[in-house]
From TrEMBL, chain A:
NCBIfam families: diverge_rpsU (TIGR02396). Keywords: Lipid-binding, Mitochondrion, Transit peptide, Ubiquinone biosynthesis. GO terms for molecular function: lipid binding. GO terms for biological process: ubiquinone biosynthetic process. One of its GO terms (cellular component) is mitochondrial inner membrane. Pfam families: COQ9. This is Ubiquinone biosynthesis protein. Pathway: Cofactor biosynthesis; ubiquinone biosynthesis. Gene3D superfamilies: Tetracycline Repressor, domain 2. It comes from the Eukaryota.
UniProtKB/TrEMBL annotation, chain B:
It catalyses: a 2-methoxy-6-(all-trans-polyprenyl)benzene-1,4-diol + S-adenosyl-L-methionine = a 5-methoxy-2-methyl-3-(all-trans-polyprenyl)benzene-1,4-diol + S-adenosyl-L-homocysteine + H(+). Its EC number is 2.1.1.201. It comes from the Eukaryota. GO terms for cellular component: extrinsic component of mitochondrial inner membrane. InterPro entries: SAM-dependent_MTases_sf (IPR029063), UbiE/COQ5_MeTrFase (IPR004033), UbiE/COQ5_MeTrFase_CS (IPR023576). Keywords: Membrane, Methyltransferase, Mitochondrion, Mitochondrion inner membrane, S-adenosyl-L-methionine, Transferase, Ubiquinone biosynthesis. This is 2-methoxy-6-polyprenyl-1,4-benzoquinol methylase, mitochondrial. S-adenosyl-L-methionine binds at T110, D136, N166, G167. GO terms for biological process: methylation. Belongs to the class I-like SAM-binding methyltransferase superfamily. MenG/UbiE family. It is a peripheral membrane protein.
């Protein structure tokens, strides 16, 4: 039996686990390859998605290939994931895997860039290009993720992606901009991915241009917001001082 | 918080069987039989060799009123737990697979889980081929299940087999022969729970699923306090009034209290060799019961 002190110290430790993602940005494996669930999904993702798309059959075939029985797959997944939908799990696996690769493959190149804007741009491009191998089936994954029953999990993953991008780009904001940046980046990701579905240009150059424009808009919006804030504060103080001076004259 | 825990302890102790003998011959008596191994039977310590017989006695005496009592004690919730486990396991031969499943329901005397699993497989996946073995150590409970199966579509079906088996050994079940092993409210009564888990590992095919529904520890100390009051004061009384058997139900609540908590039990499952997905269990009704799963790799 634990003493009361021990109990509290355990609870205190639990509190330390990040609730605010980027304040304690630990880096556990995002798609942990050691778990059986991820072994099955990874097999499905690399071997079966290119042929069969983001479908339950792809997961079933992968389960058989890994040595588990597709007929009892529910028992392996349902106790750890809320979706109870294998195609959704596969779509989420793509999101996690690509998010992990986006950072792992490019952290050194990104480290050589000087400003936040370029790094964000760079990560965004790399992340979009990670959709390339599965792009002809990607509409299935997006379709799964926006089903009402799956939408909360999808939004969580979208937030994680926007957060990782902003954090690795070097975002150090400690005010309300923390939220607005992530909202804006998430919006840019969704628009660019939808654009990418119907993009037939070579090397997805149109998509990359589109994403660059969206991020440019985010920056412009940020500058407008900051300038507006500065203008309001200046005028506010001036007005206040003017009133004061008039009152003091009597 | 701490004073509450002390109260709980005092309370449970007050209602339990005396743990130690107050007269002085006790220790000498134990000394004389040092090679006998003891195990818990509720709060009593009994020689390991005797527990099986004692548990047998308990279940033989409650067999006929087992379901009425379960409904009364859990206010019907045990049916929801069982249904929940069956839905979550979501087993059934997939149309593309063509290989029927072999289920084994241990300590499944009354057949609730067995019929439920087969029904689920049929309703969701159109599976009418998968087979079921219902094993129970107690022939009286098993007879109750057989009697009940006559009223279902599985009456005299070759798909369902009833076997008197000790869950710790499963002598008649060959190695690597089972796809899904379930045990609902049974493993608590095993003399050697680890041996039970090891046999489960033995009989399962690689990739096979182990699932266990069992009473567990209520996680919230305040709720646990009220749960202890309910179980130690109301349940034996209900046993007395409804089934006319106070002792059996006194054993029931004590054995629940003695059963390892969620984390400990999940570790026992790991120790048997299973891979445990995530934290390995799901609490039901604040942890009054928990579902544990394991996968044989």
């Amino acid at each position: 039996m634990l003493s009361l002190g021990q109990r509290f110290s355990i609870q205190a430790k639990r509190c330390l686990v990040r609730s605010f993602h980027s304040l304690y940005h630990t880096e556990p494996p995002i798609a942990d390859p050691s778990t059986l669930e991820n072994k099955i999904l990874s097999k499905a993702y690399t071997d079966f998605v290119p042929k069969e798309g983001f479908t339950e059959e792809a997961v079933n075939h992968a389960a058989a290939a890994v040595g588990t029985n597709p007929s009892t797959l529910g028992a392996i997944f349902n106790f750890t994931t809320p979706s109870r939908d294998m195609a959704m799990e596969l779509a989420l696996y793509h999101m996690k895997f690509a998010r992990q690769e986006m950072y792992e493959q490019n952290k050194e190149a990104a480290g050589k860039m000087f400003n936040e804007k370029d790094r964000l741009q760079f990560y965004m491009t790399k992340r979009l290009l990670l959709n390339e191998p599965i792009i002809q089936h990607y509409h299935q994954a997006l379709g799964r993720m926006i089903l009402p029953s799956n939408v909360s999990e999808s939004l969580k993953e979208l937030h994680n992606l926007a957060d990782d991008m902003s954090y690795y780009a070097g975002d150090k904001s400690t005010d309300f901009a923390w939220y607005s940046k992530r909202f804006a980046v998430a919006g840019a990701i969704i628009q660019s991915e939808l654009f990418m579905l119907s993009d037939h240009s070579k090397g997805f150059s149109d998509t990359i241009q589109f994403a660059t424009d969206r991020l440019q808009e985010v920056n412009t919006a940020g500058r407008i917001y900051n300038s507006f804030e500065e203008w309001i504060i200046f005028n506010g103080i001036s007005t206040l001082n003017m009133i004061r001076s008039q009152v003091a004259r009597g | 918080m701490s004073c509450l825990r002390v109260q709980t302890k005092a309370f449970t102790k007050g209602f339990s069987m005396p743990l130690t003998r107050l007269f002085s011959t006790g220790p000498q008596l134990f000394q004389a039989e040092t090679d006998t191994k003891f195990t818990d039977f509720g709060y009593k310590q009994v020689p390991e060799a005797d527990k099986e017989k004692l548990v047998h006695g308990v279940f033989s005496s409650v067999a006929s009123s087992y379901d009425v009592m379960n409904d009364a004690m859990s206010m019907g919730i045990h049916r929801i737990w069982k249904r929940h486990m069956i839905n979550k396991l979501d087993c059934g031969m997939r149309a593309s697979s063509g290989e029927p499943l072999q289920f084994l329901d241990v300590a499944g005397g009354t057949g609730d889980i067995a019929f439920g699993l087969l029904d689920h497989a049929k309703e969701k996946y159109g599976d009418t081929q998968s087979k079921m073995i219902v094993a129970d150590i107690n022939a009286d409970m098993l007879k109750e299940g057989e009697r009940r199966s006559k009223k279902t579509v599985y009456a005299d079906s070759p798909r369902i087999k009833f076997m008197v088996q000790n869950g710790e050994k499963l002598d008649a079940i060959p190695d690597n022969s089972i796809d899904v092993y379930t045990v609902a409210f049974g493993i608590r009564n095993f003399t050697d729970k680890q041996a039970g888990l090891n046999s489960a590992y033995r009989v399962l095919k690689p990739g096979g699923i182990f699932a266990c529904l069992e009473f567990s520890k209520v996680q919230d100390p305040v709720l646990d306090y009220f749960y202890q009051i309910y179980s130690f004061s109301c349940l034996p009384m209900m046993g007395q009034f409804i089934a006319n058997d106070r002792e059996s139900y006194q054993y029931l609540v004590e054995s629940i209290r003695k059963h390892p908590d969620q984390e400990t039990f999940a570790n026992m499952i790991r120790k048997a060799g299973f891979y445990v997905p995530g934290k390995g269990y799901e609490n039901l009704t604040f942890g009054v019961a928990a579902i544990h799963v394991g996968v044989k790799l």
